[in-house]
């Protein structure tokens, strides 16, 4: 597959301000393999590979955009959890001049910014008006579920998401196949290039989100199933293992009501967060929001 960056953004053109399903892809059902027998992060429950049978369904070709989410907010007056909490996490390189924010000790590259939410993704003084075709961010699982109810869709299951991301391939590592993205060339998705979190070379042209549909689609015609933004699924987070560590992780995930997220984001790099692989997964509580969390909708066939 070519490494050239697509110049068109078909999803943005198809759904600029509404819930039209002009660019929804039919995904065939049947038997499929989920997970991997060669996990990178075993504690995340990436393996073992397992066979499941899925019904046919439909999936948004692209993640939900700022414009599409704005239509939802305009129609419903919905306030996201980040708005109700009064803050959300912003990557430290995106802090505006004069901003001061606390950072978690374990992840000092994240900053707790007062007033950051989907329409002001870097906090007060920022706006999504100049990026209507970028994926909406600072969206929690709860927010995504609210949007899905309004739009007549649902969040995909983890199995549906993986099946769709493989684009018809049996065991592809990435949505485009097994070719590994590099820092220098072959920009197949929007991820970090350089030394995370100290230096981003911006070799792919993006420090943060890219407009949806910027990169070539997979075999099913789906865009950005790796990188750009993390995508919520409907499934609770569980690790499939009988080990004591897995049991402890599952107890914590159940207590926090964690949900599975897939796909990685623009902050992923092989040396840091090698989770733009199809089998990769993380779990977060349903009220989690940050500058790299988004979603796309599924629909029953």
From TrEMBL:
Residues 22-298 form the Sulfatase-modifying factor enzyme-like domain. Pfam families: FGE-sulfatase. It comes from Neoroseomonas terrae. InterPro entries: CTDL_fold, Sulfatase_Mod_Factor_Kinase, SUMF_dom, SUMF_sf. It comes from the Bacteria. This is Formylglycine-generating enzyme family protein. PANTHER family: FORMYLGLYCINE-GENERATING ENZYME, SULFATASE MODIFYING FACTOR 1, 2.
């Amino acid at each position: 597959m070519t490494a050239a960056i697509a110049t068109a953004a078909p999803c943005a053109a198809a759904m600029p301000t509404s819930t039209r399903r002009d660019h929804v892809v039919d995904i065939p059902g049947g038997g499929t393999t989920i997970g991997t027998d060669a996990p990178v992060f075993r504690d995340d429950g990436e393996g073992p590979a397992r066979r499941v049978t899925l019904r046919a369904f439909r999936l948004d070709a692209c993640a939900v955009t700022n414009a599409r989410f704005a239509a939802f907010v305009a129609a419903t007056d919905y306030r996201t959890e980040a708005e109700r909490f009064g803050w959300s996490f912003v990557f430290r390189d995106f802090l505006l001049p004069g901003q001061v924010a606390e950072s978690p000790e374990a992840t000092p590259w994240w900053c707790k910014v007062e007033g950051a939410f989907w329409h002001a993704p870097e906090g007060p003084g920022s706006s999504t008006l100049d990026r209507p075709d970028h994926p909406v961010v600072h969206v929690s699982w709860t927010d995504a579920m609210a949007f899905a109810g309004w739009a007549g869709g649902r969040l995909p299951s983890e199995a549906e998401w993986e099946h769709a991301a493989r684009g018809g391939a049996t065991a592809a590592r990435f949505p485009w196949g097994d070719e590994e993205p590099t820092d220098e060339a072959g920009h197949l998705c929007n991820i970090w290039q350089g030394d995370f979190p100290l230096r981003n070379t911006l070799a792919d042209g993006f420090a943060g989100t890219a407009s949806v549909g910027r990169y070539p689609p997979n075999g099913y015609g789906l865009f950005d199933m790796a990188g750009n933004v993390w995508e919520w699924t409907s499934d609770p987070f569980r690790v499939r293992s009988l080990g004591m560590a897995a049991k402890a992780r599952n107890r914590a995930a159940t207590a926090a009501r964690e949900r599975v997220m897939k796909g990685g984001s623009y902050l992923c790099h092989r040396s840091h967060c090698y989770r733009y692989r199809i089998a990769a997964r993380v779990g977060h509580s349903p009220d989690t929001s940050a500058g790299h969390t988004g979603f796309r909708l599924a629909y029953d066939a």
